[in-house]
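Consider the tokenized backbone below.
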């Protein structure tokens, strides 16, 4: 179903809320916008007169820049807010902060926040489209969409394809959004990592658990390597970085031992020498920078589809 502009939801809070048709529609428009951003003139007037606020209450490099570029490529007016140098430091609440920004006639809010559920909370209290750019350990929907788009671009339809997500599943919003997205697209999903970093109830999401990385890599068409999120760990989940690297780090020797090398992905930022060696990260097997490029097109698609539904445009 790629013949209209209508998502089933008003906001993008999580992949859990999207239908398979929504995801296909976003993929369809991502392809169209990928063509646009590879033209000499990379800009289209699709969101002229739409104002978008990017609110980042937590650090980001890729997502923040990617959203801003996507918005500018669509000719939206853009305002940027980062909590670090704002009145949040004086005790202003999230809703007050956002309502003050909305008073400036903002149509769409893109928000990253450290608290799981922050985007949902906001969507119930303010009158603007909300796009979740990552909420704590909950979801990172545009990352999962760009990951799925990047996989499809390399290996085709994901129906029946095997994807292993490796590493810190416990603290990862990327893992949860990827699992929802890949399952909706018909892929087989496995997770791999230390027992302490894999939620005990993960099988309820319909994924396999493979603890041995070499077995997981031999099984997979795609290996999505996650960052060890030291900042979200309140205790030691594995004996040492050296131990982690030996058991769950991908290096070239590991890949060369396989009959078929899976596509290697990473959402960034990479801990080089931990999840991946530089040799692997910078090799032809890795599509990490393709993911970043595709992120702009995918975010253009999401913003275009959501903003097309605003009263402003209807
Ligand atoms: N992948 C990702 O979310 O990266 P940033 O934290 O730099 O936005």
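A designed sequence for it:
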């Amino acid at each position: 179903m790629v013949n209209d502009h209508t998502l089933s939801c008003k906001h993008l809070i999580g992949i859990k809320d999207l239908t398979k048709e929504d995801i296909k529609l976003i993929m369809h428009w991502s392809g169209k916008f990928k063509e646009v951003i590879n033209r000499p003139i990379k800009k289209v007037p699709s969101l002229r007169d739409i104002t978008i606020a990017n609110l980042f209450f937590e650090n980001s490099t890729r997502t923040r820049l990617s959203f801003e570029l996507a918005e500018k490529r669509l000719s939206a007016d853009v305002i940027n807010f980062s909590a670090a140098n704002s009145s949040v430091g004086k005790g202003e609440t999230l809703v007050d902060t956002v309502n003050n920004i909305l008073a400036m006639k903002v149509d769409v809010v893109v928000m990253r926040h450290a608290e799981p559920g922050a985007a949902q909370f906001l969507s119930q209290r303010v009158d603007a489209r909300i796009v979740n750019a990552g909420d704590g350990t909950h979801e990172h929907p545009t990352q999962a969409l760009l990951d799925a788009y990047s996989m499809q671009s390399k290996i085709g339809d994901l129906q029946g394809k095997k994807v292993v997500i490796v590493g810190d599943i416990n603290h990862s919003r990327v893992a949860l959004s990827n699992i929802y997205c890949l399952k909706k697209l018909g892929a087989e999903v496995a997770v791999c990592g230390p027992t302490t970093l894999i939620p005990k109830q993960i099988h309820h999401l319909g994924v396999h658990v493979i603890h041995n990385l070499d077995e997981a890599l031999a099984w997979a068409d795609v290996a999505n390597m996650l960052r060890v999120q030291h900042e979200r760990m309140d205790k030691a989940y594995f004996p040492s970085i050296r131990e982690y690297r030996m058991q769950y780090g991908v290096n070239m020797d590991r890949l060369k031992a396989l009959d078929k090398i899976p596509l290697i992905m990473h959402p960034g930022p990479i801990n080089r020498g931990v999840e991946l060696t530089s040799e692997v990260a910078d090799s032809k097997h890795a599509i990490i920078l393709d993911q970043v490029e595709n992120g702009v097109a995918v975010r253009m698609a999401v913003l275009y589809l959501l903003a097309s539904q605003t009263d402003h445009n209807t």
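The chain is about 35% helix and 15% strand.
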